[in-house]
Amino acid sequence: MSPSSADGGQLTIRGGSPLPAVLFVTGVLLTLIAAAQAAFALGDGRPALEALLDLVFIAVPGLTFAYTGYWLPRSEVTGTYYPRIVAWMLGGILVMFGFVVLRDIHPGVTAEWSVGTQAIALTIGSVGGLLIGIQETRATIRTAQLEDRQAELEKRTAELEANERELERQNAQLEQFASVVSHDLRNPLSVAQGNVDLLRDEYEIDRLDTVSDAHDRMETLIEDLLTLARQGDAIRGVESVGLAELSRACWEQVATEDATVSIDDPPMVMADRDRLRQLLENLFRNSVEHGGEGPNVTVGTLDDGNGFYVADDGPGIPESERDRVFESGHSTVDSGTGFGLAIVAEIAEAHGWDVHVADATGGGVRFEITGVEFPE
């Protein structure tokens, strides 16, 4: 018989074992016998206390059997554990039977037990064995469950260790890549730029400006690639950083052309100063490059106090593009590298922050950084 469930109040048998049904029927019979025995005792004129004792000593085990037979199919105890419970019941019966036998053969005992008294003793022994068996079985099940959880935890720990080793290997590859970019590409780029400068001293050729611009773009690409490659160990510790002061310092490092900046007294934040500087500079460059002629860039605190923002009054970013602006290599202008906002997203994630694109007040784009921790 396949495992069944207990629905509609019906007694069901789990795992094909008849034990629950046997217990339930036995319990009902014992309860009926107890009621009949008590009624017979009262009708025979025996004391009410004797009738009550017959009722208690027979009905209580009967009710215990009936409830256990009802409860077992609905419990976590599966049919595979039923033989274990039966063994405990038999053990309880044997213990009480041994006690009865020893009492009967003891030379110092003259009083005889009636058959009913001996039956009650054996019934009590079976009930005791049943209850002990159920508790011991449940403890065994819990132990097995804990062992399974421990095995699953050890498996996941091993997987995490394997992932950590793989991450270390990938970080080593990234570091090697960064070294190649830093030395093997920058050196010939410097030689090329130096030769362009020498040619400018001898000749006035407009195309040299194009070559020089291409070199500058390559240098920017190298810088951004190095930044992305080294983001894995970017956050080494956080400290209290004055966002207003750092924003002013970052603005001075960006080629702002005709752009202006407004710093609306943003708060102190807990951050890695160097990485936060990188985030702000990239957002400033993005506003200068995409904000049109002479954009005004604003740094301020979000209304809900959950972070800060960098906004500009340029043309903004269409909603269809907002999900892609943080992708590596995505840029809407020919002069962009496509890595600036990807680096912003990497730095925000390393801090545990979120960065979102929204409309700025009065037009333009606003980059909102949320989840920021503030000094106490």
Can you offer a commentary on this structure?
- The protein is an alpha+beta fold.
- It has three domains: 19-158, no CATH class; 167-229; 238-370, 2-Layer Sandwich (Heat Shock Protein 90), CATH 3.30.565.
- Helix content is 61%, strand content 10%.
- It has helices at 19-43, 48-71, 82-105, 115-202, 207-229, 243-253, 273-290, 319-322, 340-351, and strands at residues 239-242, 260-263, 268-271, 296-301, 307-312, 354-359, 365-370.
- The strands form two sheets. It has a five-stranded mixed sheet with strand order 2-4-5-7-6. The chain has a two-stranded antiparallel ribbon with strand order 1-3.
- The protein is elongated.
- The model is unreliable at 1-15 (pLDDT under 50).
- This is histidine kinase.
Short description:
Residues 180-370 form the Histidine kinase domain. It contains nine helices and seven strands; from the N terminus they run αααααβαββαββααββ.
